[in-house]
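re: that chain from earlier
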Amino acid sequence: MRKFLVIVLVIVVVIVLGLLLTGGPARKAVPVVNQEQTAARFAVEVVPVVRGDLKQTAALNVTFAPESSVPIIPKTGGTVTQVLVATGDRVTKGQTLFTIDDYHLQLQVKQAEAAYEMASANLAQVQKGVSAEEMKQIESMVSQAKASYENVSAESKRMTELFQRGMITQQQLEAVQLQKEIAASNLTAAEARLTAAQKGASPEQLEMLQAQVKQAEIALEMAKLQLSYARVTAAISGVIAQLTVEEGSMAAPSAPAGLIVADSKMKAKAMVPESYINQLRAGDKVVIEAKAIPGMSFDGTITAITPLADQMTRQFPVEISVLNQSNLLKAGMMGTVHFTIGEVRNQLLIPVDTVLFEGEQAYAFVVEDGSAVRRPLKTGLESGGMIAVLEGLAEGEQVISRGQHQVKNGMLVEVR
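^ sequence. v structure.
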């Protein structure tokens, strides 16, 4: 009996051990999974290949200057009697800026008028003939003209000596010399009239008298022109940038008395590197900003491109005309000009940072059927974080934009 129990106990132990070792009578079947299905997919982000326009610009420093500046230069000398403008005033072309004492110039005009009237009268008298009484008047006129000429000649000699000593101005000497010329013309006309009255006028004498009338007329016009110079006017429209005269001061011929700048347009001058210069053309439109006027831009046009590089910087001076309708731009201000140095239209575009390089060969990864596929690229213009693709991609393809540095050609990827 005891032997039987021992045998039964041994059988039970063996059965229990067997179940423990085999996992029980109903072990579940383990399904066979493909290695491709269980492999981990690398997470990436993508961007589409798009089509659009791209413009490449270069920003260079510029300095603003007035389109034109003209010095205020009197054409005659003398004491300034009235100043009608001040620095900073806006003036128009032909506007009177200041006046110069013109008393002696008015006298010259009156003298020239008298000479013209005398020459005209001589001609008229000869043409109609003279009476005995008129002959005496003519002789008296000759005597007066001769005395006047001798007085003016003596004064001219004295003034010449004073000028040589530096005691009078060139303008004062010229005024006396003009008076001498007018007196000489008067004497010649009076003598010619007397001769013509005594002998009767020949055709040659008539021609001479007519020439004297013309000469007197020109002298009168010149005297009036000299008188007009006493009003110093603006040569251009603009702003008075400098004015160095005041009432009571002396103005001298050819000595600048101020400066007018035309500021409705400004010039911006830039120095352009040789790598950009052949991309620019006269007439190109540009955008300019002034550092002193933030938030505003100004339209400009390239007006001149110097074909000779600066010897020091090896850069090319370029001049730009800038509209200044608001008058905010001032001469000497600094700014920035934006040149267009390249442009493409309707071109395939991708972000610059999606492009990788192996040596000089550009490439990018695109996602095809869940895999990263390497595509060699031919690229073009680059600007604003985008680059043009000339070959290697098609519009709408998905280019890996995050994770492109870690993926390999053919690697399984998951787009997130």
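Confidence is low (pLDDT under 50) at residues 19-38.
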